[in-house]
Design a protein that fits this description.
The chain contains eleven helices and 25 strands. With 474 residues, it is an alpha/beta fold.
Length: 474
């Protein structure tokens, strides 16, 4: 009897536990079923009218390509019904005669790109009304004729503003005031001919400023005086003929781009720069005579590529005591003379000469390059480069690129054959094209696959090489 009673009591306790567990389990099962049956993020993204819309880790990426006003209105209505925020809103190649006041109402998005969509000044003001959360804005190739200053003041979270290829003609005082967190501003491809002295007041945190491809002739020094954090300044493709003395003082630029600009001033314009990117200077004589390179204590990287330089501007470069990298690629340089690097070559680690017309190299051209590690001479007209010509740099050099030159297969390139075959120099093999030489019979040979005897070298020359600068045991 006791056993039966105990059994009933035990069974009753078990039933009570099961009942209590069921009460807790049922809501969990229902919630799980609701989660499984609910539309997934990818499904919700596909419900938006703009077919390129997708779900990203930070939110919806709404992409509307060649969309009409009706499609956009429907798409934004569908977006508002989603439980996700819009991280990126992209409207491209859409002919919008107008933007209705209500189109963006209720939308929360962090980045907007409108490209080739005929956006007007009034349209932008409508968009900015709902843009309190915006971080990036790109209004590319629209019809914007002036910066919507009042509307911009509300966007204190904005870090990037791109107004490229619009119809802006000038920048007035405080035109970007209120954009306290703006770090990048791009105004490339407008018609800007006038920049007020206080145009950038209020954006002291700016890091990158692109004013390229405008109609600037002069820039007042005061325009950049408050940009103490500016690192990159693009002034290429303008009509600049004069910069005031110390125009960049106090902003410690890392890079300034002045493509196709001519500087007639001999004043110390660039004294504060750490790095200069100067492309498309008209001729080497202008560099030597009209452009005073007055940053001898600062400059480490000088780029003069893609110009029309006919020779190395040695006299203009001799004041550069700390130069580490010199880029002279894609010019019309035909020779490297004996004193090309005299007076400024002691600190240079990298030199780029690719895509020139170089056919002659003097025997002592590289004697002043005591610390050179990287030399690129690809895509030139070099037929002969002996060990004697480069013996001064061979002990330190890590990378030599002589690809795409009409090198002759003879004993003059025995050193190159050795260099390319040395496993310690594999970087030269992996990072460049194959090195080819040409025989007297017009055949092309891959240099590192040849035997030393194929180059026609006397036995004593081969023995000398094996005991010389570069032969390591392998």
């Amino acid at each position: 009897m006791k056993k039966m009673w105990f059994r009933r009591e035990t069974d009753g306790a078990w039933c009570g536990q099961r009942g209590r567990s069921g009460r807790f389990l049922a809501p969990a099962v229902v919630a799980l079923l609701m989660l499984l049956l609910a539309p997934q993020p990818a499904q919700l993204a596909r419900q938006v009218s703009c077919p390129l819309t997708r779900m990203m880790s930070k939110g919806l990426d709404v992409v509307c390509e060649r969309a009409s006003e009706k499609i956009l209105v429907n798409a934004f209505k569908e977006v508002r019904e989603q439980p996700f925020s819009v991280y990126y809103l992209k409207i491209r190649n859409s002919n919008l005669p107008r933007i209705p006041d209500y189109m963006f109402t209720g939308l929360e998005f962090y980045n907007i790109l409108m490209k080739w969509s005929h956006v007007t000044f009034e349209d932008i003001k409508i968009i900015f009304v709902v843009g309190a959360t915006l971080e990036d804005q790109i209004f590319h190739s629209s019809n914007i004729i002036q910066v919507p200053t009042e509307a911009l003041r509300k966007l204190d979270k904005l870090t990037f503003l791109n107004l490229n290829f619009n119809e802006l003609s000038g920048l007035e005082d405080g035109v970007f005031a209120g954009l306290n967190n703006l770090e990048r501003l791009s105004l490339y491809g407008n018609r800007i001919s006038l920049i007020s002295s206080y145009s950038f007041m209020g954006v002291e945190g700016l890091l990158r400023l692109n004013l390229g491809k405008n109609r600037l002739k002069t820039i007042p020094t005061e325009a950049f005086s408050n940009l103490n954090k500016l690192e990159v300044l693009e002034l290429h493709e303008n009509d600049i003929t004069h910069l005031e003395s110390r125009a960049f003082k106090g902003i410690y630029l890392n890079r300034v781009s002045v493509h196709t600009s001519m500087f007639r001033s001999g004043q110390p314009v660039f004294a504060e720069l750490l790095l200069l990117y100067a492309s498309n200077l008209a001729a080497v004589d202008r560099i030597c005579k009209h452009l005073k390179l007055d940053f001898q204590n600062n400059l480490e990287w000088l780029e003069l590529g893609n110009n029309r330089l006919g020779r190395i501007p040695t006299h203009a470069l001799q004041s550069l005591r700390n130069l580490r990298q010199l880029d002279l690629d894609s010019n019309n340089i035909s020779s490297i003379p004996e004193a090309a690097f005299q007076g400024y070559g002691n600190t240079i680690n990298y030199i780029h000469f690719e895509n020139n017309q170089i056919s002659e190299i003097s025997p002592s051209s590289f004697d002043d390059l005591k610390s050179l590690e990287w030399l690129t001479l690809a895509h030139n007209h070099i037929r002969r480069l002996t060990e004697e010509m480069i013996s001064s740099i061979l002990p330190e050099i890590r990378h030599i690129d002589l690809s795409y030159n009409p090198l002759v297969c003879n004993c003059d390139i025995l050193w190159l054959w050795q260099f390319l075959r040395d496993p310690y120099n594999r970087q030269s093999v992996w990072s460049t094209e194959m090195h080819i030489c040409h025989t007297d019979y017009g055949r092309s040979q891959q240099i590192d696959t040849l035997l030393a005897s194929d180059l026609g070298c006397p036995e004593e020359e081969v023995a000398k090489m094996q005991g010389g600068w570069g032969m390591r045991d392998y």
